[in-house]
Write a structure and sequence with these properties.
The protein has five helices and nine strands, in the order βααββαββββαββα. The protein is of the alpha+beta class and 179 residues long. The relative contact order is 0.16.
Length: 179
């Protein structure tokens, strides 16, 4: 049995954003492969493809830019935007398990915060799909006995939800035993 007085901070797992990670990888790979792709186009027999490879654009900040450099810059910039999106998604939600209550903080700048005492919590429910099971991630939902939307905790994309559910059940049972 774990120590129920330990404070635990929970955030969404990075691996839970597998769709965004695939997009990140594809954008990065496409951006890095763009110069080689343009070189391949230039080696083709079709005049149309050779013209595409030889195309250059006059851009305000970059000056005279070839299609290969433009493709590489677009891919890398897209990958950076997706990486920022993943990072913001990870830190947008924070759930903290204190000794006597759970605390949720939602948002980066304008936070919405709420708390629920363990003695008011109902049995946690795990929701996850097939891919989530393979990646050991899922969503854990805890509702209060008082009801209402403010009394519900939806911990999305958490790592190892079964272990987290077990920990929450230990804390709920310990809080109810004290009363």
């Amino acid at each position: 049995m774990s120590d129920t007085s330990e404070t635990i901070v929970i955030r969404p797992a990075v691996r839970a954003f597998y769709g965004r990670l695939i997009v990140l990888f594809l954008l990065l790979a496409g951006g890095l492969a763009a110069p080689a792709g343009v070189s391949w186009l230039a080696d083709q027999d079709a005049e149309f493809l050779q013209r595409i490879a030889a195309t250059s654009l006059e851009l305000p900040l970059l000056g005279e830019t070839g299609v290969g450099v433009l493709g590489m810059a677009t891919g890398i910039l897209g990958a950076l935007i997706v990486a920022l999106w993943i990072t913001l998604s990870r830190y947008y939600f924070t759930w903290t398990l204190h000794a006597d209550y759970m605390h949720a903080s939602i948002g980066l700048v304008a936070n919405k915060e709420r708390a629920m005492y363990y003695e008011n919590a109902r049995i946690p429910t795990i929701r996850r799909g097939i891919v989530d099971r393979l990646l050991l991630v899922g969503s854990l939902e805890v509702s209060s006995s008082g009801g209402g939307d403010e009394g519900e905790f939806h911990m999305q994309h958490v790592s190892n939800p079964k272990r987290l559910k077990r920990l929450l059940m230990e804390r709920i049972e310990a809080a109810r035993a004290r009363n």
